[in-house]
Amino acid sequence: METMKFVHLTDTHMNAPGKDGLLAKFNLADKVKMTFRHLQETGVAPEFVVITGDLAHEGDAEDYAYIRTLLDEGSALIGAPVYVVLGNHDHRPAFRSGFLGELPTEEPYYYAHDIQGLRLIGLNSQIPGKHNGRIDEEQLAWLKAQLETPAPKGTIIALHHPLMGVIGMPGDHLMENRDEILKAISGTDVVGVLAGHVHSNNVGVQQGILNVAATGTAFSGEMADKEHYRMVDFSGYNVVTVNEEGLAVQTVVLPTSNAEYFRFPIAALAAQH
After folding, report:
1. pTM for this one?
2. DSSP string computed for 38-91
3. Residue-range domains of the chain with CATH
C-alpha cells in the first residue's frame, strides 16, 4: 500500500468577523488561517483535511458562509480538499444554508468519500440542542451498509463525539450509543475513528481500532484544580499517516500564549452545551 497523509482539525469555533459572543472576541478564525499557512509553509502536502465538528460557535448562516469561504481559501492554499462534520455547537439549518447553499433543514449531514482508495465516512453525532452525541438509526443502518464492502486502504470514520471514554469528562457529555457503533464497526475495514469535542488530546484502541480525540484549533481544556475546569489559549492539529502497517498520528502544536480564557466549576461541565 502506498503511504498517504491527511490532516485532522477539530473544534474551530469560528464566527464571522464583527460578531458578538463569548468566544468571538478571541478571533478564533485567525487560528484556522494560521493552521493552513503552517501546512503550506512546512510542506505537509496532505491528501485532504477533515474537521471533526464545532465549526462555528453557535453559528448562523452568515457565520457558515464565512467559514466556507475561509476553508475554500485554505483548501486552495494547500491544494487539498477540506471535509467537515458537525458538532454540538453547530446548527444544521444554518450550516445547510450558509455552508452548503441548500435549504435550511434539520436533516443530519453525513457522507462517504473515496480518496485514492481510503474511504472517509463523516457522521453527524450531534443531537440538536444538547451537548452529548448519538448516531441515529438511519445513519447507523447506512453505516453498516457502507462497511459491507471494504475499501482498498480501509475506512476512517470522522465524527464529533468520541467513542472512547475520556478521563475527567462526564459520560453523559459523550456518545449515548457508542456500544452500538462499536459493534457496527467491529470486524470491518475501519482503521481509525477521529473525533473532537473534549478539547484535549486522547488516543486509545477499541475493538482493535485506533481512536483519536484531538484538542483542536480554538483552545484546550484541562483541570485547573480539583473543583474547576479551564480553557486555555492553545492551537494544534494532527497529521495522520496511513500505510500497510496501520495509522500513525503526529500532533503539531502551533505557537500561542497559553493564557487562560476562562474557567468554571466541574459540576457545571455537564450543563455546558
Report:
1. 0.95
2. HHHHHT---S-EEEES--BSS--HHHHHHHHHHHHHHHHHHTS-EEEE--TT--
3. 4-271 (3.60.21.10)
